[in-house]
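Progress against Task 2.4 (sequence-to-structure conversion) is shown through the following example record, which the project officer requested during the mid-term review.
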Amino acid sequence: MRLDGRVAVITGAGSGIGAASALAMAREGARVAVVDLNEASAKSTVEQIEKAGGRALAVRADVTRAAENQMIVERALAAWGTLDIFFANAGVPQSPQDVEQVDEAIFDLVMAVNVKGVWLGAKYALPVMKKQRRGVFLITASTAALRPRPGMQAYAASKGAVVTLTKSLALEAASHGVRVVSIAPVATETPMLPAFMGKQSVDAESRARFEATVPLGRLNQPDDLARAAVFLASDDASMITGTCVEVDGGRCI
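Structure tokens generated for the chain above:
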């Protein structure tokens, strides 16, 4: 097992990419702190992990708050004594709107979760990893950072920021033996997909329009990203740092 004996923290792990990644890392031997703002969803992911024979704990936390990021790291250390992987995956979408129609509160929320939440995770996780002289800090970015769709300017800006943050943190952490990598998914089958489409639910026309922009002809499944996260967190990726890995079916070509 590629992550045997390691400890992982995954934010936004109550559903979607985070939940799939928590399950995948647990299958590979990691003990997983499942973090989500929705405590019931976090507990559901933990139950699935434990049912499959893995070890996990649920943590309710708001990633936009410094004290709660510190608490996340402390909970993992108290439970298992180390921190090998921190996957800053929690994020919020933006429904397509022209910039003049976007409420300032939406911009503030997108930046708080998608950028500040990642920075705060690094603020508390990286010192532990630097001291250990090992660790991997993963970030969920987006193809929106590289090839934005119209009307999602706040979301695109937030994901562009974390791609640059990836590179900056990677340079800072490299001399300590710590890697920092981001992952850029194309549109993915998660609870956030309708919002990206500007819909209450995903309809056949909207799905076909999105799929037509992906050369491989389909949207991501959460497991596509989970497999990428496991690889990047493992020693198989020991020379990968500062990179934004596109898991996008060719969307960014």
